[in-house]
Amino acid sequence: MTRVLFLEDSYLKECDATVVSVKDGKYVVLDQTLFYPKGGGQPWDTGTIVKGNDKFKVVYVGKFSGEISHEVDHAGLSEGAKVHCILDWERRYKLMRSHTAAHVFASLLCTGTGALVTGNQLEEDKVRFDFNLEKFDPEVVREYIGKSNELFKKDIPVKSYELPRDEALRIPGVVKMAEAFPPDLPSLRIVEIVGVDAQADGGTHVKNLKEVGQIELLKTENKGKQNRRVYFSLI
Ligand SMILES: [Zn+2]
Fold first, then answer.
1. In sequence order, what are the residues at sequence separation of 6 or more whose Cβ sits closer than 8 angstroms to the Cβ of residue 209?
2. Measured between alpha carbons, how far is 81 from 72 in angstroms, rounded to an integer?
3. Across-strand partners of 204?
4. For residue 176, how far is its CA from the centre of ligand 1 (angstroms)?
5. What is the dihedral of CA 209, 212, 218, 222, to 10 degrees?
6. Ligand 1 centroid, distance to 103 Cα (angstroms)
7. Could you list the mean pLDDT of each consecutive 10-residue stretch along the chain, which spans 235 residues?
8. Which pLDDT does position 182 carry in this prediction?
9. FRET pair for 95, CA 20 to 30 Å: which of 47, 58, 215, 222?
10. How many angstroms is it from 40 CA to the middle of ligand 1?
11. Ligand 1 centroid – CA 74 distance (Å)
């Protein structure tokens, strides 16, 4: 099983690794990785795998039958190769800031209005957020963006830890999306924004709300009777 370094430390930018297997010349499994695979509303990481003088661009990272697989731009890696991995840190750090921002905004909006989250997708330059709410006023969304920005000025730690499943599921609001109910695992990883929110989550986050910066509302849309869509971005 690949050691998942980004869950241990989301600030790791480089690591050494050994190639465990290569399929079709370009799908690479490593003994340890810092590349996040697509999932949970967070895009996959990009970066480079270096072997000697050869640089392999990581163009896609996905999870297949429980294994994290890195798709590289050309063949040449083989089983047992010692490599060095370099994350496209600027892009990932932005995604970490956006991901933490999304948790704060979701928590404030859902607690304040009773809205239910139906979808959430981080993109490189914006965050898309879908929720169910009967009465919809874009001004209310603006108000919660403002409340989120107030919190992003404060020194509030963000922690992650594993909890036994039963204990985790007793935390109010720990699973925000019904369809994203965690699979039947004995323990769940909790991302806690101290005093604000605790959620079952496998994504990468910043360690303090101050790192988020500020966010701005880009657009609100009505997608049917109760479905609302909001886009916001980091400033
Ligand atoms: Zn999340």
1. 100, 104, 151, 152, 154, 155, 156, 157, 158, 193, 196
2. 14
3. none
4. 9
5. -40
6. 6
7. 94 98 97 96 97 98 94 98 98 97 94 90 94 89 97 98 90 68 77 94 96 97 90 97
8. 57
9. 222
10. 7
11. 32
